[in-house]
Amino acid sequence: MTGPPPAVARVRVAVRRALSGLAAGDLVLVACSGGADSLALAGATAFVAPRLGLRAGGVTVDHGLQEGSAERAEDVAAVLRGLGLDPVERIAVAVGTEGGPEGAARTARYAALERAADTHRATVVLLGHTRDDQAETVLLRLARGSGARSLAGMAARSGRYLRPLLDLDRRTVHAAAALMDLRAWADPHNADPAYTRSRVRHDALPALERVLGPGIAEALARTAGLLRDDADALDAWAEEAEERARRGPAALDVAELAGLPRAVRSRVLRRAALAAGCPAGALTARHVFELDRLVTDWRGQAHVDLPGVRRGRRSDGRIVVSADEEGGP
């Protein structure tokens, strides 16, 4: 008996591994844009999930950013239903402006996926990111001067989100979609140089391949995995250190902080700022650096201004992050 083509088999195996820890009867939702990556994921999930005793549904998000987007979203929903996925939902969203066009679309999309998962009580949501997407993410964050956690890229599992295809290259996944007779829609935004990720995909990565040789995407993805292990260890260390340094609900002991390696101390200070209400997207490495100076280079400076109308200050041997009105002049 002849098995599936190699590309299809590899995608199915990746999905099986990702879903193997779920309980019989759990609902899995596939997020599908209509592109080859997410269609291949949907096709593989439709095949694998019932064999694991799981239910499989799908959701497609209409961002409303292009003419005819509603019709395309309905076409994608019809394909998902044709694969046997149930429930299938098409969600129209309003994309704002905060975070730029790519960031705003991402925010709206994930909010829609969260609502769908809550509505249908899905255990996990599957995303179609590939190894090439991982490499692009690492390059984008490297260009922004991000730290180890950001350079660790996308995790195979993050909360209720699973990325089964993260170890597979885009060419294999696209081949699998074609072999499953799933006709993909080519999003023009993916080739639009106005979008940073598009420039990375079509200009930066090919240039690196020409200069440094093949295998750049794989190397970047492998680096992300190594950095993720390091970041996980440092985060665990920081959580323990924060417990030791905490003096009350909103204060950290300076002496305890000063004895930590900077990589750990900066994580503790970032956690404290987030806990005090600083928006994660606005809290930069520069803000954390200035908080760190209150520990290592304090010369009587009154406070550090932080996003979210928050201030960090040093008082009585403690670092406190609080609302501006509580922080004093």
Mean pLDDT, as a whole number?
A: 90
Q: Any idea of the CATH class of the largest domain?
A: Alpha Beta
CATH fold assignment of the largest domain: Rossmann fold
Count of the domains:
2
- The strand line-up of the biggest sheet is 3-2-1-4-6-5
Low-confidence stretches: none
Give the tally of β-strands: 10
| CATH architecture name of the largest domain | 3-Layer(aba) Sandwich
Structural class: alpha/beta
Q: Please give the alpha-carbon distance between the first and last residues.
A: 78 Å
- Structure annotation, total helices: 13
- Sheet-strand content, in percent, reads 5-15%
The CATH superfamily of the largest domain appears as HUPs
Helix fraction by DSSP (H/I, runs of at least 4): 40-55%
Secondary-structure element sequence?
Answer: HEHEHEHEHHEEHHHEHHHEEEH
Largest sheet: 6 strands, mixed
Shape: elongated
Summarize the structure.
This is tRNA(Ile)-lysidine synthase. By secondary structure, this protein is of the alpha/beta class.
Give structural notes:
This is tRNA(Ile)-lysidine synthase. ATP binds at residues 33-38. One of its GO terms (cellular component) is cytoplasm. Its main location: cytoplasm. With 329 residues, the protein is of the alpha/beta class. The chain has 2 domains: 6-212, HUPs (Rossmann fold), CATH 3.40.50; 246-327, 2-Layer Sandwich (Uridine Diphospho-n-acetylenolpyruvylglucosamine Reductase, domain 3), CATH 3.30.465.60. Helices cover 53% and strands 13% of the residues. It has 13 helices and 10 strands. It has helices at residues 6-19, 36-51, 69-82, 100-120, 131-143, 148-151, 170-179, 196-212, 216-245, 254-258, 262-275, 285-296, 324-327, and strands spanning 27-31, 55-62, 88-92, 124-126, 157-158, 161-162, 251-253, 304-306, 310-315, 318-323. The strands form 2 sheets. The chain has a 6-stranded mixed beta sheet with strand order 3-2-1-4-6-5, with helices on both faces. Strands 7-10-9-8 form a 4-stranded antiparallel beta sheet. A hairpin with a 2-residue loop joins strand 9 (310-315) and strand 10 (318-323). The N and C termini lie far apart (78 Å).
